[in-house]
């Protein structure tokens, strides 16, 4: 729990919007994140949730990385009423579950096509008693159109025209895609084929505690 605690404290110091979101809820958030970590460790091999069995790597590269752009996502939502966020290809619930823990006023839909991982998501959210999560087992293409203010994902396949249009299709008017990405140069290369399309996009850097690597949120506006 100490690494999670120190990591979240570091995020609080660097962003006033994160501080606002977690105000008065710090201990509860830490407790839920620690329980979530334990659940992944317990069931990782059975459900094929993450590519690591190292507890430190799980916390830094997965849980803290999921939380690090919390302030960015909050600012993208602005004053949106009853915001709805989708986590596409949720897998182990990353970033959806950590974000839902930190943003209880947002409704999260975790979209996962693999049955065993969807079962884990249902089990984990029930165990954590998180009421602002819906688990949707199935393909992203079958998700109801124009449903979300933000669609986010990490460790998802690289963008192509078909995937981009599918993601755009599930966004509400003025919604945004917020994709977790690494190095800026690689992200710019990934977006190069879309330069002639009428989509506005930008990259926003963020820092993950204890991780000395480039990390960016790729924002694509509907």
Can you put this structure into words, describing what you see?
The chain is of the alpha/beta class and 222 residues long. The protein has one domain (2-221): Rossmann fold (3-Layer(aba) Sandwich). It is built from 9 helices and 7 strands. It has a 7-stranded mixed beta sheet with strand order 3-2-1-4-5-7-6. α7 (115-128) links the parallel β2 and β3. α1 packs across α2 (16-22) and α1 (2-14) packs parallel to α4. The termini are far apart. The mean pLDDT is 94.
Could you give a quick summary of the protein structure above?
By secondary structure, the protein is α/β, with parallel strands linked by helices. Helix content is 45%, strand content 20%. It has a single domain, classed as Vaccinia Virus protein VP39 (Rossmann fold, 3-Layer(aba) Sandwich).
What structural class do you assign from the helix and strand content?
alpha/beta
Gross morphology is: globular
Please give the domain count.
1
Total number of helices? 9
CATH class reads Alpha Beta
Largest sheet: 7 strands, mixed
Strands ordered across the widest β-sheet:
3-2-1-4-5-7-6
**Beta-strand percentage?**
15-25%
> What do the pLDDT scores average to?
94
> What is the correct CATH architecture?
3-Layer(aba) Sandwich
Rg over CA atoms, rounded to whole Å, is 16 Å
Any low-confidence stretches, pLDDT <50, length ≥5? none
Q: Please write the string of helix (H) and strand (E) elements.
A: HHHHHEHEHEEHEHEE
> What is the CATH topology?
Rossmann fold
User: What share of residues is helical?
Assistant: 40-55%
How many extended strands? 7
CATH superfamily: Vaccinia Virus protein VP39
Distance between the termini: 39 Å
């Amino acid at each position: 729990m100490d690494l999670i605690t120190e990591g979240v404290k570091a995020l609080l110091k660097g962003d006033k919007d994160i501080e606002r979101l977690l105000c008065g809820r710090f201990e509860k958030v830490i407790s839920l994140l620690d329980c979530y970590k334990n659940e992944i460790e317990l069931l990782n091999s059975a459900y094929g949730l993450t590519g690591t069995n190292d507890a430190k790597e799980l916390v830094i590269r997965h849980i803290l990385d999921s939380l690090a752009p919390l302030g960015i996502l909050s600012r993208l939502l602005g004053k949106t009423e009853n915001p709805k966020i989708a986590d596409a290809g949720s897998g182990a619930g990353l970033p959806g579950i950590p974000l839902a823990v930190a943003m209880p006023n947002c409704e999260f839909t975790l979209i996962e096509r693999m049955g065993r991982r969807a079962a884990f998501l249902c089990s984990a959210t029930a165990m954590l008693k998180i009421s602002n999560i819906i688990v949707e087992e199935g393909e992203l293409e079958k998700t109801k159109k124009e449903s979300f203010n933000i669609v986010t994902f990490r460790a998802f396949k690289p963008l192509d025209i078909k995937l981009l249009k599918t993601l755009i299709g599930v966004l509400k008017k003025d919604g945004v895609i917020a994709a977790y990405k690494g190095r800026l140069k690689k992200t710019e290369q990934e977006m190069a084929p879309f330069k002639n399309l009428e989509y506005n996009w930008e990259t926003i850097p963020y820092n993950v505690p204890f991780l000395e690597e480039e990390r960016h949120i790729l924002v694509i506006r509907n």
